[in-house]
Amino acid sequence: MSDVRTTARGIAWRADGPAAAPALLLLGSLGTTSDIWEPQLAGFTPHLRVIRLDTRGHGASAGPPGEYTLDDLGADAVGVLDAAGVERAAVCGVSLGGMTAMWLAAHAPERVRALVAVSTALKIGVRSTWDERIAQVRAGGTESIADGAMGRWFTAPYREANPKTVEWCRSMLAGCQTDGYIGCCAVLRDSDLHPVAPRIVAPTEVIVGVEDPVTPPDNAHDIADHISGARVLSLAASHICAVERPAEFNRAVLDFIDAH
Fold first, then answer.
1. Which pLDDT tens digit goes with each residue over 105-161?
2. Which residues lie below 8 Å from residue 205, measured CB to CB, with a gap of 6+?
3. Residue 2 pLDDT exceeds 80
4. What's the pLDDT tens digit per position in 216-226?
5. What is the dihedral of CA 20, 58, 117, 18, to 10 degrees?
6. Edge-to-edge strands of the sheet including 23-27?
7. CA separation for the pair 194, 223 (Å, rounded)
8. Sign of the CA dihedral 13, 81, 51, 133?
9. Are 197 and 223 in contact (CB under 8 A)?
10. How many whole angstroms separate alpha carbon 90 and alpha carbon 257?
11. What is the pLDDT of residue 251?
12. Residue 218's CB: how many other CB atoms inside 10 A?
């Protein structure tokens, strides 16, 4: 596995796959590290230079106290592309990472050659829900929300059949920096991409789990309604569909990137 590097902004990142191959930037969801993409590496790295980062306040990335903004996360991602020497990349993000990916495509279109928005929305949830989540994590840490999150991240049959994978993901969330998690909750509470989504010109694929209670299919179709030419692909999964259905997810992403 590749060595972890750090940008001037304190964002940890790594690159795998041939240095000369087309670049794919992967952006993870709230409460996960770049390790969440392990089910994708074997399928992606023969064809692509796969660049992964730990979101601000997650994993090995710096997590300053205080609230973050989507502008912050977008600038962090641009900084990783710069550090990796990548002018243009396909960008794939899940949930919070999906919002960051769409921010990139809207605000730095010259850097994004194709966009894959996964289990995400132009606006995720409502202010009161995120304020409640922030209060809960401030009081009890991310351990206090880990069990409930697994019920949203994966379908019940998957949880029953794959307890080790679910525990791996639970441990990732429970180990998340409190300040970083809260800072990113503020991003989700305050961000609404509806005004800028129509600017996006990169070819766009939206992937959604049909049983996702966090960003259900209506959210995916809302994205497609705001981005010209975007297409929606549904998987039989819940929120973290790249882990729950890795073979189908990997094929969908590779086929889309190959076509663009």
1. 999 999 999 999 999 999 999 999 999 999 999 999 999 999 999 999 999 999 999
2. 114, 115, 116, 117, 230, 231, 232, 233, 252, 253, 256
3. no
4. 999 999 999 99
5. 10
6. 5-6, 12-16, 49-53, 23-27, 89-94, 112-118, 204-209, 231-235
7. 8
8. positive
9. yes
10. 7
11. 98
12. 9
What the block records as the tokens of 15 is 């690159």
For residue 252 the two structure tokens come to: 């969908």
Number of domains in the chain: 1
In sequence order, the 6+-apart residues with CB closer than 8 A to the CB of 15 are 2, 49, 50, 51, 52, 84
Question: Tokens standing for 212?
Answer: 């996702």
pLDDT in tens, 14-69: 999 999 999 999 999 999 999 999 999 999 999 999 999 999 999 999 988 899 99
pLDDT tens per residue across span 172-186: 999 999 999 999 999
pLDDT tens readout for residues 226-252: 999 999 999 999 999 999 999 999 999
At 251 the three-state DSSP class reads helix
Structure tokens at 156: 């019940």
Q: What is the pTM of this model?
A: 0.98
What domain range includes position 139? 5-259
How many other CB atoms sit within 10 Å of the CB of residue 200?
Answer: 26
Contact 191, 100 (CB under 8 A): no
d(CA 89, CA 23): 5
Residue with tokens 């973290």: 240
Give ∠ CA 173-16-96 in degrees, rounded to 5: 35
Cα 98 to Cα 118: distance, rounded to the nearest angstrom: 6
CA distance 119 to 219: 9
Q: CATH number of the domain at 176, please.
A: 3.40.50.1820
Provide the pLDDT confidence category of residue 71 given band limits of 50, 70 and 90.
very high
